[in-house]
Amino acid sequence: MKHKGKTLLALAGLVTVSIHIINRVQYSVATVKNVLSCPDNNYYEWRFGKIRYTKKGNGTPLLLLHDLSVGSSSYEFHELIDSLSKDHEVYALDFLGYGLSDKPNITFTNFMYVQLVTDFVKNIIGKKTDVIATGDSCPIAVMTCHNNPEVFGKLIFINPQSLYQLNQIPSKQTKLLKLLIETPILGTFVYNMLTTKASFEKTFREEYFANPYNIDEKDILSYFEASHTPDYNSKFAFSSHTGRYLNINILHALKEINHSIYIIAGEEKPDINTIVDNYIYYNSAIEHVYIPKTKQLPHMEKPAEVLEHLEMFLH
Q1: Are 244 and 178 in contact (CB under 8 A)?
Q2: Which of 88, 96, 148, 294 is deepest in the core (most CB within 10 A)?
Q3: Could you write out the DSSP letters of every residue in 120-147?
């Protein structure tokens, strides 16, 4: 029995060491090309960590808020920033837990990000700003605008999150999944298996782009790198997102907002017609447009068409 116990202990130790080595190799592979490096990086010292952002151009301020899916960052707007900066003072930040911002071991919530955006506008931009938000960051923009109407001017949402999904609160299953991902070594290994380069390639082909031939290798590498920079800490924002801790009911806020709202939607994104109709049902003043032959990231797949609509609405 003692011999078997020692053997099992040795095997457990070997498996643990092997998983740790695999985890370290994954980080090295993901960050070796340094795709997210930028000479224009600035950092805002916020209460929960440093927030990386870039600033470019002159004119009316415009804040860009990226999606909160795993691997997301302000890179998402790289095709838009130069053009937008001709008429606007453009700010693009990486949310806490994403991109090159700090990634603390905390539970991330909609309320926390609302506080971050509010503080960023007041302390860095210093005046009312228009905002472009995508996917999961749209509810953050809605709640920020509802709680502090003076912070935002016009609101532009690119493929906003489903109102039905936003009503789904953490369950026993999602709480357990969050705990699993956050465990050392094993949880990190699970996270790494979910965020391989191959998994991002599949997501881009099936969910993000309508035409796989429009996908740039650098796009995939940016998501791969962002999900593993600087190390395993990227998994904490992912675990909160997966655990539904970022969800919040925005129906009351959406009804009461008096700001101009414009939705840009990928025509081939599943259920997008229903999603847009639901937003308009709760706020009939919302305008919208569909970008043909695009899915979740029309601003990356067809930036010229998206820019045309952005400039029309912002002016």
Answers
A1: no
A2: 294
A3: HIIIII-S-EEEEEEGGGHHHHHHHHHH
Asked if 220 and 300 count as a contact pair (C-beta separation under 8 A), the reply is no
Cis amide linkage into residue 230, ω under 30° from 0: yes
Cβ atoms 91, 63 nearer than 8 A: yes
In three-state secondary structure terms, 51 is strand
Chain position carrying tokens 């032959």: 293
Query: Distance of CA 80 to CAs 15, 61, 101, 304, Å?
Result: 46, 15, 21, 8
Tell me if 122 sits within 8 A of 149, measured CB to CB: no
Helices (H), 136-291: 138-147, 163-166, 172-182, 186-194, 197-203, 217-226, 234-242, 251-256, 272-282
Residue 115 parent element (H or E): helix 110-120
**Whole-angstrom Cα distance, residue 235 to residue 70?**
9
Rounded-to-integer distance, Cα 102 and Cα 92, Å: 15
- What per-residue confidence (pLDDT) applies to 34? 65
Distance CA 298, CA 59 (A): 25
Cα gap 190→41, rounded to integer Å = 31
Q: What pLDDT, in 10s, does the model give residues 171-196? A: 999 999 999 999 998 999 999 999 99
Cβ atoms of 128 and 151 closer than 8 Å: yes
pLDDT at 33: 53
- Identify the bridge partners of residue 266 per DSSP, sorted by sequence position: 291
Q: Which residue has the tokens 């962002």?
A: 226
Cα–chain-centroid distance for residue 213? Answer: 23
Q: Is this prediction's pTM over 0.85?
A: yes
Crossing angle for the helix pair 234-242 and 172-182, to the nearest 10 degrees? 170
